[in-house]
User: Fold this.
Amino acid sequence: MNKVFMSGNHAFAEAAIRAGCRSYFGYPITPQNELGEYMAEHLPKSGGVFVQSESETAAINMVIGAAAAGARVMTSSSSPGISLKQEGISFLAGFQLPAVIVNVMRGGPGLGNIAPAQGDYFQATRGGGHGDYRTPVFAPGSVQEVADLTRVAFDVADRYRTPVMILGDGMLGQMKEPVEFPDMLVDLPEKEWALRGRGEGASRYMASLILDVMEMERHNWELVRKYQAITKNETLYEGYMLDDAKIVAIAYGTTARIARAAIKRVRKEGVPAGLLRPITLWPFPKEPLQELARRIEDFVVFEMSTGQMVEDVLLSLEGRGRVAFHGRPGGVVPTPVEFSRILYREYQRQVKSEK
Amino acid sequence: MKLLNKWPSYYKKDVVTHYCPGCGHGIVHRIVAELLEEMDLGKRAVCVNPAGCAVLAYKYFDIDMIESAHGRGTAIATGVKRVKPELFVFTYQGDGDLSAIGTAETIHSANRGEHITVIFINNAVYGMTGGQMAPTTLLGQRTTTTLGGRNPKFDGYPLHITDMIAPLPGVIYAERTAINGPAGIQRTKKAIQAAFQVQVDGLGYSIVEVLSACPTNWKMTPEESFKWITEVMAKEYVPGVLTDKRGGPA
Ligand SMILES: Cc1ncc(C[n+]2csc(CCOP(=O)(O)OP(=O)(O)O)c2C)c(N)n1
Ligand code: SF4
Ligand SMILES: [Mg+2]
Assistant:
């Protein structure tokens, strides 16, 4: 397929359809409305199901039903709506059902605003709903990556039978870029475990209620083993100009793009800066970061929040290195100039302390 | 020799019921299991069971089942039915589940005319959590959260949710019955059969509300409970066909 010029929101939808997703349930909320609208236009044409639900709560429960029946299924929303979906995401985790949930984040808390933000990192990476579970979280940084990671998200969801979240923001959702999509998937394998009526075989049931505490504990540890396998096999990150770096920015999604531009700027001023960009936020690329910390002392975490991913950075570094944080919450999109000032300042501090 | 009674084939054997003596749930379970067999639906059936005393219904029904979060049954059923229209999909829900926390899902699945069937067990209390007030609790009825009896000044009025959704064009069949004796049980079976048939015929949404005893939380004997259904509950929630659009729009 040739490159097309498309917004992130449309790319989420097109990539889902190409990943074999034929069912979408959602409720409108800015800045991700174009995703649902694209599904409403294109899914029925390909024999798929689009339902505009009465709420995000209803949507995620329709997702549960479709997933239980074996379908590849997606829902999407933005921050306040994702909060409403959390109960259902917890049930998906408990039932061990695959589904893809897109969060195009906006400023908060509360209704907040409709500008790009990264304030839902904790909610996404800590298994936002109740109970002891995690959800794999992918954080695309470009429209091309929206297309690529949406495919990966469906595969990971099916492979491990888990809900998967894709965490974007209003910038990524609205921005148009050239994008090339993977080929249309056809003939997905049947899911042995799905509900389809017992037929001549044994009946199946899906329950998250496990009253026997020993059974519940066994179930919890079974989930943990799955999360360990995901951590081992599915962790993704990208390094940029790390080889000779003496100071490393850590940022994801939109913020990483800005950081990349800032690094280009400061390198012209002789600051040897690099970037570590987590592509999965959970599992967090802990080992690559620890590896970097063997030779690099200085890290600067950039986020469009008051500081959430920085906690994972600190946890990963286990006391090593020096971590600075620069955040712009509330829907403010920082500029490369702003980031380059921070990188410059932090590097000067390093040089001074070495003297 | 005439066979008068047999174990329904979609009802599991060798399980001990967790329902209290005289509870309406067990009777309605039996009716549903019999109909799944008589109407030859069990093999392609998916039941969505609720949070409520029937959360353990999968212990009894020998068909494919999925539990729902409290109140979300008809949304889950919507998801199943939309992606697998060939399945026979029904929810089984209590009055707290369907008419309190799940009100939005109830109204909108009905309004979309989803091709699902809803079995609605109205026992005028929250059975599972120990007998608190439900939206369906009668005026003056004592519960653990209406100690002096339900007072409309503070607690609102009994909610007639089935009557509320019956006029919707998408609701093809709605009936209210009472499990208060052999005649009521027979009528309930006929009603659920009619509701199931609506889905089989591809007509749309159907619901049967069953007035059902909760002797434990009503603090009555099973016998007194049946009497209370007839003399008190059925006066507020009058049994009968609430809508029948099988022949076309009403
Ligand atoms: C979100 C949520 N809130 C509360 C509960 C606790 N809870 C479980 S069942 C129930 C009420 C059940 O009453 P009803 O639906 O009438 O069913 P019954 O037990 O009477 O058959 C409640 C409040 C829950 N499981 N989930
Ligand atoms: S508490 Fe009430 S509804 Fe629940 S099993 Fe006992 S009698 Fe039935
Ligand atoms: Mg009840």
User: Anything to note?
Assistant: Residues 25-133+159-244 of chain B form a domain with the Rossmann fold fold (CATH 3.40.50.970).
